[in-house]
Write a structure and sequence with these properties.
about 325 residues; mainly alpha; 15 helices; about 70% helix
Length: about 325
């Protein structure tokens, strides 16, 4: 990768990592489900009028919108509102790579290699250690909600792989239109219209800023730039940069929110990130085949432009934005 492309990948990881601190600040202004709904509303508008018509079937847009937008982010925001620290949340969510591999095996028949199975075991040990750490400082129920959010993220990854969107930014913008009404409805039912109205009446520049950051920086810019990189580089080159997300998440939470990071937390981070790195490792045969395709001068075996976006899966395999 060129230095500018490396810098862009690091910038996206930083934006995604800092977003956990932004979410924590936003939860001081909004109920969790309302905050999540506003995030997707601002991400979808006005971008939906600029990206063109959807390029995949609506069934995939709706399915990913429900799994990712309603289930994953709804559970994450509720878990953080219930006391899950932002830095730890950024770390624990990385277990989504393990869930993705498990669901891909169960529903797509993608058998994991021995290295990936070992990576899953190491990552699960890291999550267990993080649970022990959180059990001494915060509610385990909130921890379980973030684990459930990671599982829903794994479901959305498999669904996105099936959808194989040719344009990841277009796909993400249209996906962002789906969760708005379900999240608003759930917020009215569970958080109450009076609490929602109070939050909207009290909206200030900080509250508006966190919504804009979560919508435009992490969603529109983050996924757009990530997809742009995956158009130009193999997934095995780009995907490892996502392992920087918990580094930025834990660092920003410690710097701006004073979240403590003790030895047990660092040990769980090392196990989880190391395990996810193994889980995301591209098999040698696949790397060799991809290298042969990319290096061959024959047009008949060149990589088609519509294959690149399918390489966004955090497991390092082709097929998701």
């Amino acid at each position: 990768m060129r230095p500018a492309h490396i810098a862009l990948a690091v910038l996206v990881a930083a934006a995604w990592g800092v977003n956990f601190t932004v979410i924590e600040v936003g939860l001081d202004h909004f109920p969790p489900l309302l905050f999540s709904a506003l995030r997707f509303l601002v991400a979808a508008l006005p971008a939906v009028f600029l990206v063109g018509r959807p390029k995949v079937a609506w069934k995939w847009i709706v399915a990913v919108g429900l799994a990712l937008g309603v289930a994953k982010f709804g559970l994450l925001f509720i878990g953080m509102d219930a006391g899950m620290p932002p830095g730890l949340s950024s770390l624990v969510l990385q277990i989504q790579a393990v869930f993705t591999a498990l669901f891909a095996f169960a529903f797509l028949g993608e058998r994991p290699t021995r290295v990936r199975v070992a990576g899953m075991a190491v990552a699960l040990c890291g999550v267990g250690l993080a649970a022990v750490d959180e059990g001494t400082a915060g509610p385990l129920g909130a921890f379980a909600l973030v684990i459930a959010a990671a599982a829903c993220w794994g479901v959305s990854n498999v669904l996105t792989r099936k959808a194989s969107p040719p344009d990841p930014l277009n796909f993400m913008v249209w996906v962002s239109t789906v969760p708005v009404l379900p999240l608003l409805g759930l917020s009215l039912l569970t958080e109450g219209p009076s609490r929602d109205l109070d939050a909207l009446r009290a909206l200030d520049w900080q509250g508006a800023g966190v919504v804009v950051y979560a919508a435009w920086i992490t969603t529109v810019f983050g996924f757009g730039a990530w997809g742009w990189l995956l158009h130009r580089h193999p997934a095995s080159t780009v995907a490892p940069f996502s392992l920087l997300v918990p580094v930025f998440g834990m660092s920003s939470a410690a710097l701006f929110l004073g979240e403590s990071v003790g030895p047990l937390r660092w040990a769980s981070a090392a196990l989880l990130v190391g395990g996810v790195a193994l889980t995301s490792r591209t098999p040698r045969a696949a790397r060799a085949a991809r290298t042969a395709l990319l290096s061959s001068p024959a047009p008949a075996v060149s990589v088609p432009t519509d294959s690149a976006p399918r390489a966004c899966d955090p497991t390092g395999k082709a097929a998701r934005p």
